[in-house]
Design brief:
Layout: E1 2-4, H1 23-36, E2 48-53, H2 57-66, E3 76-78, H3 95-101, H4 107-110, H5 118-142, E4 148-152, H6 155-165, E5 183-188, E6 196-200, H7 204-207, H8 218-230, H9 239-256, H10 281-285, H11 303-306, H12 317-324, H13 331-334, H14 352-359, H15 390-403, H16 409-422, H17 442-446, H18 460-475, H19 479-486, H20 490-493, H21 505-518, H22 521-603, H23 605-654, H24 659-730, H25 737-1009, H26 1015-1115, H27 1123-1223, H28 1231-1235
Parallel strand pairs: 1-4, 2-3, 2-4
Antiparallel strand pairs: 1-5, 5-6
Length: 1236
């Protein structure tokens, strides 16, 4: 995901203020576009799904400059969700001004009064993140959109967006660096949306560096870096916006104190000198002024930045260059240790003694504070007031040096020796023997005494007090600054530099005795004198501190007066806000009128709903038909179930010998089920183990998160300690605020004048807004007329649709009546067949009863004969025994003959039934084929008619759209001609303004030449010149607005043309796709029809054979030796099977007809839906054309306003001429100007 961050707000906090993009900003964006935008580059327009752009003109202009060289501008959305943080009542204020109004304020925690709170800002950024991730979800899961999403926004928004992207709180944005025009890339780890990450941060600020930003004066570059670095506040979100403001203040004070330029270039003024390889790292890093780090991280300087001689360090004047370009710089305000630094001219300061030599005349106390880069200023600078920016930087250096211990005892010894051996203060001759932080006896040896180690701990006060004096000398401050520096606790400044004695206090007393015994009482007396002198000086410093406190109270009173004055200004601003609210109320009235028009439009919706209800009724009728088809399908299912039961009976008779094999199969299936159950148990166990692993991983993640939270809390504790030191240092800054308050008084006067000018501008804007309101009313009336015309067109289209729908309903009703008639005819034939079937059943029943009677009679006769034969059997049994074999042979022959006759009768009946069935089946196939051909012909005719109607409707719609497009092109050409005329008029007005400016200069010269002009007249002339300059500025703004309007209009016309062409192509492709789909459906229907006919014939044959076999199995057990009876029973059963088969075939034929009719209706509905979609697209295109025409009208109204402004300026110039004539000054006007 691409991110493009903007920080083009200049000097002050500009959230709602819509400031333009400066020429320097345009140059920087163009350089970024040349290197990073284009096909195959980092920002590839083909990969961009959409672009969210802030509605501020600087962001919008940046977007268009970025993509001005690509063939097609990517899809972008202007959204208020991407705007800058709304600063509310603090709009246009600096951080120090806000802290004066609300002490202890922190924007990252407290938000902005009257603007957006922290929660509101976080919710707005989270909403944008949700939209972006929705696009990415579509890309990952569906692949329906492109890959990248781009956001063109502002500095604070970008830092908060980056923090929230990876799940950190809003205040984490203080730890991120985003320069003006920087690119940040946010993505995901492991190709999953659950792991958002930061891929690149502040990308283009290091890729695009101009050569002219490096070629500057080294001394000036260091001063600019010092000023920019000292004005930063790490815990405030205003760092982006106040860097330039701080530079302006420092340049003002620099002009007020020209002796500041005499300082050496390697003074501790914000540059980071690069030490030599044998210099200790701590001594190097603590020399630079460390700005306050963001809350939660202590201020640090990385070793890579200090020890990188291979890279050429960038000069800090790039910050100044950005300030001149009108873009807020964040390079120094956001990075305390990674900012590019300038290598000092000659001083790499391997020891403090060398820096003391470079300084010149006076020694310094810098060895006590490990500062390598600090040197002594010239004596001329000791009486000069320091700048407001360099002083905090030096105090920061002193504070950090005082709170950190020295790296080693060896370095302390070298520092002490250098301080004692190289130079002495001129004012205190014996100071060298006292100031020794390391316990070395070299200073006492210089006084003529033998070296004893415990002698360094005679009195800590004697060591500490002169150190304070040395600090005042090292910083080269006046008396006021020295007193302020002395107010700090001296023990704190030397707590890390004075070595602790290795012997307790009684050891110190013994050392004094040793001194007395050795005869060194003179040295002890000198030390005591120095101690008393230090105490006296300390008293004087405390008195000076008391005086400063009195001055501080007076300053506070003056500050309260300034606050009251600011409150009066706020009341004036509130009045302007009330007038703005009145204008908003009028705008709300216009919105209400628009809502009424929308309500009138909503009243037309019930008619559309009624038509939809009619469509639903038709759908209900279709559902009833579908239910009828379902019932027929159920009947078919019951018949098939009967067939399956018959087959099952047959299979049970045949499969009696397969019982053993089935039992074996059951056992095998049981074993397989047990195996599957065991596998499922194993999978459940593995799933449970995976869940346990996931729970363990989540617990580890929570523990790591807690550890990280504790680490952040520890870092916050360290930052709080550093803040405590900073708060102690702020007590000393009150003396420097006197000059700042004076400057602020002047600024307040200027703001008062600017507020008066703004009041006049607001009055003029109110008038223009009234004109815009009238134009808006006219536009609303036009919109109402257009809405009525659209309603009429919609009503006509609705009537046409209703007519078409009625015609289609009539056709469907006719088809339905035809189908009902055919159904009734088939039902009549079915009833006749059922009657014949009943008659056949009755005949069968009668035959069976007759057969039963005959059988009973035969049985009775047989019984009587059998009784007679049994009686005779006893007598002739012997005779029958000899003839038994003959009788059995005869019986067997009779049985064989009976079986043969039965088989012949069965085969004959089967053959006759097959022939009858074949004849009937052929007749049914011929009928079904004829019916299907008729249905296909009717469907093809209907489809051709629909296609012809659809083509004609599309042609008419395309013609109407072409007419509208030609009209819009004509209107666009007319507007372009009007714009050309306006441009020519604007050029003429420019020449007129130039001539009037020349005339005004001539009038000024004449006025200066005449000494008799009164001061009131001079003031009036100055006011009029100021108004003229304002008029010129307005003219320039209008010119730029006109250029932007022209570019936007050309873009709109191109976009509209592309949209129309794409829509026409899409409609043509849809029509071709519909044709192809319809042909494929017709082919598939024909294929399915043939397959179903073949399946139907096969099923009928199978059903006939199955029933014949079933009847044969049923008739076989009833045979008792009478072949004629079996033949008689077999022949009617064959006739019954044929009727059943005919009924089933008829039902199948009816079902197939219903299916074909349902598919036809479905195809008709699909075509109707496509037609509705095409009409909807046509309506959308018409709405787009109307919107474009409204935009053109709006641009014409803006052009009229510009022409009115030009005429108003001409009137003002005429009034000015009249006033000059009334005063008595005749302006020198050329003839052309008079004619104009």
């Amino acid at each position: 995901m691409g991110w493009f961050s903007l920080c083009f707000e200049a000097f002050k906090n500009t959230g709602r203020t819509d400031i333009p993009l400066t020429p320097e900003g345009e140059r920087q964006v163009k350089a970024t576009a040349e290197k990073l935008v284009g096909e195959g580059r980092l920002i590839d327009p083909k990969n961009l799904c959409t672009v969210f752009v802030s509605p501020r003109q600087r962001a919008h202009k940046t977007f268009h400059i970025l993509f001005e060289n690509v063939p097609q501008v990517p899809h972008h959305v202007l959204t208020e969700d991407a705007r800058e943080w709304d600063y509310g009542d603090y709009e246009g204020l600096l951080t120090k001004e806000i802290l004066e109004i609300q002490p202890g304020w922190d924007g990252w925690k407290d938000g902005y009064a009257g603007g957006e709170s922290v929660e509101q800002m976080q919710a707005r950024v989270d909403s944008i993140i949700e939209q972006v991730r929705a696009y990415h979800k579509k890309y990952f899961e569906e692949g329906t959109v492109s890959r990248d999403v781009m956001i063109v926004a502002h500095g604070h928004f970008g830092r908060i967006f980056t923090a929230r992207w990876v799940g950190f709180p809003l205040a984490y944005g203080t730890k991120l660096t985003m320069d003006a025009g920087a690119i940040t890339i946010l993505s995901y780890n492991h190709n999953t949306l659950e792991e958002p990450s930061i891929t690149a941060l502040n990308l283009s600020s290091l890729l695009i560096v101009d050569a002219h930003q490096l070629e500057v004066n080294p001394a000036e570059g260091e001063k600019s870096y010092e000023q920019a670095g000292s004005s930063s506040r790490g815990g405030s979100p205003h760092d982006n916006h106040e860097a330039n403001g701080g530079n302006q203040t420092d340049r003002f004070e620099e002009a007020a104190s020209p002796t500041e330029e005499d300082e050496p270039a390697d003074q501790s003024n914000g540059s980071l000198p690069i030490p030599e390889s044998d210099a200790p790292l701590d001594a190097t890093t603590n020399s630079a002024p460390t700005p306050e780090a963001p809350e939660g991280t202590p201020p640090t300087v990385k070793a890579e930045t200090v020890k990188s001689p291979a890279k050429k360090p960038l000069s800090a004047t790039s910050t100044a260059a950005k300030a001149k370009s009108g873009m807020a710089s964040t390079a120094t305000a956001k990075t305390a240790g990674t900012s590019p630094v300038k290598k000092p001219a000659s001083t790499l300061a391997r020891s403090v003694s060398s820096s003391a030599r470079t300084g010149g005349t006076t020694p310094t106390a810098a060895p006590l504070k490990k500062s390598v880069s600090s040197t002594m200023p010239k004596p001329a600078a000791s009486t000069t007031r320091p700048s407001a920016t360099t002083a905090p930087a030096r105090r920061t250096s002193l504070a950090t040096a005082g709170t950190k211990p020295l790296p080693s005892s060896t370095s302390r010894a070298s520092l002490a020796s250098s301080a004692s051996g190289k130079a002495e203060p001129k004012t205190v001759p014996s100071r060298t023997s006292v100031v020794s932080p390391s316990g070395s006896v070299g200073s006492l040896k210089s006084a003529g005494t033998a070296g004893v180690k415990p002698r360094a701990s005679i009195s800590e006060a004697a060591v500490k007090k002169p150190t304070t004096i040395a600090r005042s000398t090292a910083t080269a401050k006046p008396t006021t600054s020295s007193a302020t520096a002395a107010s700090k606790p001296p023990a704190r400044s030397l707590s890390g530099s004075v070595a602790k004695p290795s012997v307790a206090r009684p050891g110190s007393i013994s050392s004094i005795r040793e001194v007395k015994e050795d005869g060194s009482a003179k040295a002890l007396e000198d030390l005591r004198n120095q101690l008393s002198a230090a105490n006296d000086e300390l008293k004087s410093k405390t008195e000076a501190a008391a005086e400063l406190e009195g001055q501080l109270e007076s300053l506070k009173s003056s500050l309260e007066a300034l606050k009251t004055e600011i409150q009066t200004k706020d009341s004036q601003v509130a009045e302007t806000e009330s007038s703005k609210a009145a204008l908003e109320s009028t705008l709300q009235g216009t919105k209400d009128e628009l809502a009424e028009l929308q309500a009138a439009y909503d009243e037309l919706k019930p008619a559309v709903a009624a038509s939809k209800e009619e469509v639903e009724v038709a759908k209900g009728a279709a559902t009833t038909a579908n239910e009828l088809v379902a019932n027929l399908n159920k009947q078919i299912a019951t018949l098939e179930s009967e067939l399956s039961s018959a087959k099952e009976n047959l299979e049970t008779l045949r499969a009696s010998h397969d019982a053993a094999s089935s039992e074996a199969a059951v056992a095998a299936s049981a074993n397989s089920e047990a195996l599957l159950k065991a596998r499922s148990d194993l999978e459940a166990i593995s799933a449970e183990t995976e869940q346990l692993k996931q729970a363990q991983a989540s617990a580890l993640d929570e523990a790591q998160a807690k550890i990280a939270a504790l680490e952040t809390k520890a870092q916050e504790a360290e930052s709080l300690s550093s803040q405590l030191v900073a708060l102690q240092a702020e007590k000393e800054e009150t003396a420097t605020k006197v000059s700042e308050l004076e400057i602020e008084i002047l600024e307040l006067k200027e703001t008062q004048e600017s507020l008066e000018d703004e009041r006049d501008k607001l009055q003029s804007t109110i008038k223009t807004l009234e004109g815009e309101l009238a134009q808006a009313k006219n536009g609303i009336s036009k919109a109402a007329d257009d809405l009525k015309a659209a309603e009429e067109r919609h009503a006509a289209a609705l009537e046409e649709l209703q007519k078409k729908h009625a015609v289609e309903l009539a056709e469907a009703a006719e088809k339905h009546s035809q189908v009902a008639q055919t159904l009734e005819a088939t039902q009549g034939s079915l009833e006749a067949a059922n009657a014949e079937l009943e008659k056949a059943k009755k005949a069968v029943d009668d035959a069976e009863e007759a057969h039963k009677l005959k059988m009973s009679e035969i049985e009775q006769a047989y019984i009587t004969v059998q009784n007679d034969l049994t009686e005779r059997l006893a007598s002739i049994s012997a005779e029958l025994e000899s003839q038994e074999s003959q009788y059995n042979a005869k019986v067997q022959g009779v049985k064989d003959e009976h079986d043969k006759l039965l088989q012949e009768a069965f085969e004959r009946a089967k053959h006759e039934a097959g022939e009858d069935h074949a004849k009937e089946l052929q007749a049914l196939r011929a009928q079904s084929k004829a019916a299907i051909e008729e249905i296909q012909a009717a469907n093809s005719n209907n489809i051709r008619e629909l296609q012809a109607e659809h083509a004609s409707s599309l042609e008419s719609e395309v013609q109407s759209l072409n007419k509208q497009l030609n009209n819009s092109k004509l209107e666009l050409k007319a507007t372009q001609d009007d714009l050309a005329k306006a441009k020519s008029a604007l050029d003429a007005s420019r020449s007129e303004v130039e001539s009037l400016g020349k005339q005004l200069e001539a009038v000024k010269a004449a006025a200066e030449a005449t000494p008799e002009v009164a001061p009131e007249l001079a003031a009036e002339i100055s006011r009029l010149t100021q108004e003229l300059s304002i008029t010129k500025d307005d003219l320039a703004a209008m010119t730029e607005m006109l250029n932007l309007t022209k570019s936007s209009m050309t873009e709109m016309s191109d976009h509209h043309t592309r949209d129309v062409e794409e829509a026409a192509k899409a409609r043509a492709e849809e029509v071709s796709k519909l044709k192809a789909a319809h042909e494929e459906e017709v082919i598939s229907l024909a294929r399915e029809k043939g397959d179903l006919a073949v399946k139907l014939s096969d099923m009928e044959g199978e059903l006939a054979t199955a029933k014949a076999e079933l009847n044969s199995w049923k008739a076989l057990p009833k045979m008792n030796g009478h072949g004629a009876t079996g033949a008689d029973t077999a022949s009617p059963s064959g006739g019954v099977v044929t009727d059943e088969m005919l009924r089933q075939v008829h039902e199948a034929h009816n079902l197939k007809l219903g299916d074909l009719q349902a598919e036809h209706e479905k195809a008709m509905k699909a075509l109707q839906q496509q037609l509705d979609d095409a009409q909807k697209k046509i309506g959308d295109l018409g709405a787009e054309v109307s919107r474009k025409t409204m935009e053109i009208q709006f641009m014409e109204s803006e052009h009229d306003e510009q022409s009115e402004n030009v005429t108003r300026l001409k009137d003002d110039l005429r009034i000015l001429k009249d006033q000059l004539l009334k005063v008595g000054i005749e302006p020198q006007v050329s003839g052309d100007a008079d004619e104009e």
